[in-house]
Amino acid sequence: MEAAVQSAFEEQLRIGEEKEKENSEEPELTVTHDNQEFCNPESYMTKSVVETRLLNVADSFQRQYTVLFPDRKPLLLCPLNECGVKKFVSTTLQPSASSHCELQTWQGCAYFVANFLSLELLEPPVDLPKHLFSPTSVLRTRRATCFEFATLLCSLLLGINYDAYCVSGYAAKEMCLLDQSQFPCPLLDSDVKEEDSQQQPEDLLRGLRVHCWVLVLAGSGSIRENFFIDPLTGSSYPTDSSSFLGIESVWNDLNYHVNMQDCRNGCVGLKFDLDDTNLWEPVLHGATSRKQLILDVLNKKENRMISTEKEEQPRVFEMPRSWVTFISIHEKDLETLWPDGKKVTFYKKAKLEKFAPYLNPDGVITRLTTYKDQDCAEVAMVKEWYKHRNDSLEEREVNKLKDSTSERFKYGRRFQLLFHRITSLSTGFEQQMEFSSYARPDYLARRVWSTNEMEEFYEGRRDFLCYRQVIFQPPDQFDDSVCWKSPLRRMRVLTVVERFHRNAAKPANEDVAERVFLVSEEQFELTYHLMDHRFIPSRRILTKPLFRKFSNDCVSTFQVDLCAKPLSTQALFKILGALQDDEAKLTAEIKDSLKEIEDIVACREQEQNQVKLRKRIKEAVPTCEDEEQRVEDENSLESWKVLISKNLDAEEANRLYHSLLEEFKDKMVAQANLLQERYEKDTRELHAKQNQYRRNHLTMTEKQLEEYQCFCSEKTTQIKATQIRLNRHKELAHERYKALEQKLQQNPVLRPHLKK
Amino acid sequence: MDPVPNRMNREMIQNAIEKNSIKSDLMSKEDNICLPEADVIKLEYQNIQRIDSLQEYTSLVRLDLNNNLIKKIQGLDSLINLTWLNLSFNRIEKIQGLTSLQKLKVLNLSNNQITVIENMDTLDNLTHFFIGCNLLNQLENVLYLKRFKKLVHIYMKGNLFSNEDDYQFFIVAFFPNLTVLDNKLILQELKEKASSKYQDDIEKRNQEESQKQLAEEVLQKQEAELNLHKEAFVEYLDGPHLFKSMFDEDTFSSDRRSVPGIEDLLQSFENQMVGLCKQLFDRGLAEREQRERELKSFSSSQDEVETHYKNQAIQVLEDFNRQHKERIKKLEQLTLRNSVSEELSRGYDEINKLSERLMTLEFKLISKLEENIRNVETCISDKVTDFIEIAQETFTECRNLEDDFHHKVQEIIDATLENVAKGSQVENLPHDVKMLFTDKIKVMHALNTNHKLHLLTLNDREQKLLTSVSSWKIAFFKDVHDKVTQQNRTRISDIHRYADFLRKQLERFH
Fold it and tell me: Could you say which DSSP state residue A547 is in?
C-alpha cells in the first residue's frame, strides 16, 4: 500500500529528528496550522499483540451478540482509524489534561470542542460510521463526525478526572444535524415568550438517526447528577431529555458496556449503574473499573499493602493503553477557536455570529441579528459586541422597532460616557446619555435631551441637587428642518426646575426641595421639604423687583409651620440675591451641557470613522520571535533534506554544506539591512514632520495638532521597535549561525562526508 | 490719661450694626428696622467697661469686643448662636459667663489678666483658643483643655509658663490632635520628640482615662439593664432581693435563726421563693419582648399607612399646582372682563375641589390610623391581662410559701418553748437565746408580726407591679391617640390655610 512506503520513508527522517530533540520520550506532536508533512507514529499504523488479542475478543463478542440479540443493530466496536487500521473504540480515547484554565471544567472543554471542529454528517444517517479517526488527527484537520467529536471531548474530560463515557445511540433530527433553527437564541432574554412554533413535519427517520454524545456520571469532579453533553453544541442535558431517543452502548478508556435496558421510551428511566451486569453488559468481564482504581489508590495511601503476601488474583484481560499520542492544544487554538475565525449559527428568529478577536477591523466579536418573522427576512434588531476598540465601545444595538441606536462603553473614556442612545421620534430626536457620576466633577449620572427639553440626573452632589430640567423655547417655525443642526448653545431657556435631596442638617422647613426659575416671567418659586407628618410643603414665590425697590410685596409665602417666625425683609432680600446669582451661574452651566451634547455626537462620529483596535500586548514584544525563528531555520533545512538522496558523495556534501551556510548568512545580512532601512526611513519621516510642525504650529487647527501628535507618537513607537529588533537581530544572528552550523554537522546524511 | 469709658447700650449697638450692614438703598427704608437679626457686631475700641444690652440679638454669630475696658465676662447668656467671641485686650481676670455659648468655636481671651483656665465646660465645639499674654502659670492647668475634642489651635505665648523648657513639648505631647501651636504648624518630628519625652505620663493618663471610660461604660450598662427590667415591670426580681426585703424588718431574726431546724427551713424557703421570682422575672422579660415587637410592627404599619396617603396627597397637589399655574398665566393674558371672571370662578371651584379631596384623604387616613390603634390596643390589653394573671399567681404562691414557713417555724418554736419550759436539755442554744424563750407570749407575738410584715412586703410588690403595668398601658395609648389627633388637626388646618393662600393668589385679578 502506498501508505506503507511513505510511512517507512518518513519514519527514517523522523528517527533522525528524534535524536536531535531533547527531553522527549513520546514524540510530542504539536498542532500547527501550517500544512506540513505530518508523520503518524508507529502505533497508528500497526497493531500490537495486546491490541490484536483485544480485537479478537471484540469480534467474538460481536458474534455472540448477533446470535443472542438478532433484532438489535450491530455495535460500533472496531472501526478503522485514519491509517486504515482496525482499532477498538476504547483505545481511541486518550485521557489528556491540558494546562489551559479554560479547559479545566467540562463546560470549557465542551465549548472548545463544539467550536473548534466542524461537523461532517454521517452518511447514511442511520448507520454507524466505518471510520473513527484519532483525536489528534481530528484536531489537525478540524473536521469530524459526531463520533469523533465525542471521542475528543471524552478524552479531554477523562484527563481532568470526570467520569465520562462516549455514548452511541439515537437522537432527534435537530441534534444530529446540528440544526438549532427551532431553538431560541441563548443570548436573548428568556422572557421572550415562545409561541408554539408550527409543528415541524414528523421526521421519517425518527428513532433511527445515529448519534454519539458524552455521558458524565456523578461522583467525580464534583458532579452531583448524571447528565449528557451534546458535543456538537457543548450544552448539557439531563439524562431524561427528550432529544435523546435511545442508547446502544457506552464506553470509556477502561471498558465497553452494552445497554440491556429497554429504550422504547427514550432515555427516560435508564439507570446508569454500569457495574450492574444485568443492565449493562461489559465486553471485558472483571476488568478494573474506575471505582476500583480509586479504591486502589486509597488503599495504597493507607499503606494496607502487605508486601509479603499478595493474593494471586486470576489474571483478567485488561483494556490496553491507548494507541493515540498525547493530545495537546495550543494557546492559539483556544484564541482563534473557529475554523476561519468565525461561526454563524441560526436560531429561531435569530442569527448569531461569533468572530475571533482582531479578525474584523472594527473589533466585532459577536453579532446577534433578530428578525421579525420566522423566515429571517426582516431584520428587527442588530446587536454587536466589540472588544479592544480604542474608543472603548463594547456594545451597540440598532433597533429597527424602536428606531434607536444605543451604544455602551467601557469605563474610562472621554466624557466618562457609559451609554449613549439616539432614538428618532416623530417630533425629532431623543438623545440619552449615561455617565459614571463619581468620576465627573459635576456628578452627572444621566442626561436626556429631546426636542426643547433637557433633563439631567445627578448623584452624590454636595449641594444635594438630584435633578434638573431645562425647557427651551421652541425654535422658529421655519427653522424646523434644521433644528437638529443649529448650534444648541443658541437655544433660549424658558424654565429651569431643580430638585434636591433632603439635607438632614437643615430643618425641613428651610430645606429647599424644588426651585423653579421662571426666566421669562422673572419669578422664582421655592418649595420646601415636607415636615414630619405633614402633607403640604411650605412655598415661597419671589418676583424680581425690576423697576422698584425690594419690599415684602415681592414675596408671597405659605408657611406650614405655625411656630416659625416670618422672615424679615432683609433675610428675604438675601434669598432673592442668592437666587439671582444662581440663575446667572445656571445659564453658564446649561450652555456647557448643551455644548457637551454636541461634542459627544461629534466625537462619536469622529471615532467611528477612525476605529482602531488596541494592539495585543504580546505582539509588541519581539521575544517570541526567537522560537519561531529557530523553527523557521530548521524548516528551511527540511526542504533541503527532502532533496537529499541517500547517496551523496563527499564533494557534493561539502558543497551543499557550504552553500547552505552562505545562504543563511546572506539571509541574516539582508534582514539586518531591511531593518536598518526601515529605521532610517521612519526617522526621516519623523524629522520631516517635526520640521513642518515647527514652521506652521501657530497656524495649525486643533484637528491638525491632534493628528500631528498622534503621528508623532506612532512613529516614535515604531522607530523604537525597529531599533530594538535590529539590535537583537545583530546579537542573535551570530548565535543562530553557529547553531545552524552545528546542526548541519550532526546531520546523519552530511556527517560522514564532511571534512573535519 | 485714662480713656473716657462709654456706656454700652442699644444705640451704640445699632449704630455699629448699621455701619456694617449691606447696602440699604436696595431695600425700602421702612423694612430696614429688623436690626436684631444682625449676625455680626463689631464694637472694638469703644472704651466699653461693661457688656450690656445684648439680650435681644439672639441670632448673633460673631461678636468683637476687643480692645475695650471690660473687667468681667457677663451679659452673653442669650447669644446662643455665637461661634466667634473676641474679648482680647481687655481687663478680664476670670473666665466665667460662657456657659450658654455652646456653639462657640473661636474664643480669644489674649492680653487679659486671667490666671486659671476654668468654667468652660460647655464649650464642646471649641476649635481655636487664644489665651496669650495672660497670667497663666500652671502647665498642668492646660490639661483642662483636653475635654475639647475638636480643639486644633492653641495660642498661649506670653504666659508665665511659656518660657519653661518643656512648655512646647508638654503641650504637643498631651494634645495629639493639635495642629497649630502659637501660630506655628506642629511638625511630625516635634510630635515624636515630645511624645517620647512624656511617654510615661501620657501612658499613665491614657490608662486612667480608659479605666474611667470602662467604669463609666459598666455603669451605663448596668443602668440600661435596670431600665430594661423596669420596662418589664420585673425589676429586682432576678435574685433573692425580694426575699431578703421581706425579712428586713423582722425582729429577733438572728436569734431565731440559731434554733436548729429553722436555718434549713429558711434556706429551702429562700430557694423556692427565689425560683418563683426568677420564673416571673423571665416571663416578664419575655412578655416585654413580645410587647416591643407588637408595638414596633404597629408603628411601622402606621408609618406605611401615612406614607401611602402622603403620596396620594402629593400627587393631588402636584396636579393641582400645575393647573393653577397655567390658570394664572392665562389670567394674566386675558383682558375681557367676562372671560376673566369666568376663569376666576373656575379657579375658585378648583381650589374648593382641591381642599375637598385633601380632606377626604385626611379622613380616610385618620380612620385607618385609629383602626390600627384600636387593634393594637386590644392585643396589648390581652397580653397585659395575661401577664397580670401570671404575676398574681406567682405572688399567691409566694404567700402560700410564707404561710407554710410560718406554720413550720411556729411548730419548731412551740416545741423549743416547751422544752425550755420543761427545762429539758436543749442543745446548741446559746444562753441569751434560751432566756428569750422563757417569755412565750413575746416570742409568739414576734413571730406573728414578722409573718404579717412578710405578707405586707409581698402584697406591696404585687401592687406595684400591677399598678405600673396598667398605668403604662393607659398612658401609652393615650399618648398615641393624642399624637394622631394632633397631627390630624394640624394637617386639616394646613389644608385650609393653603386654600386661603391659593385664593389670595387669584384675588389680584379681580
Answer: S
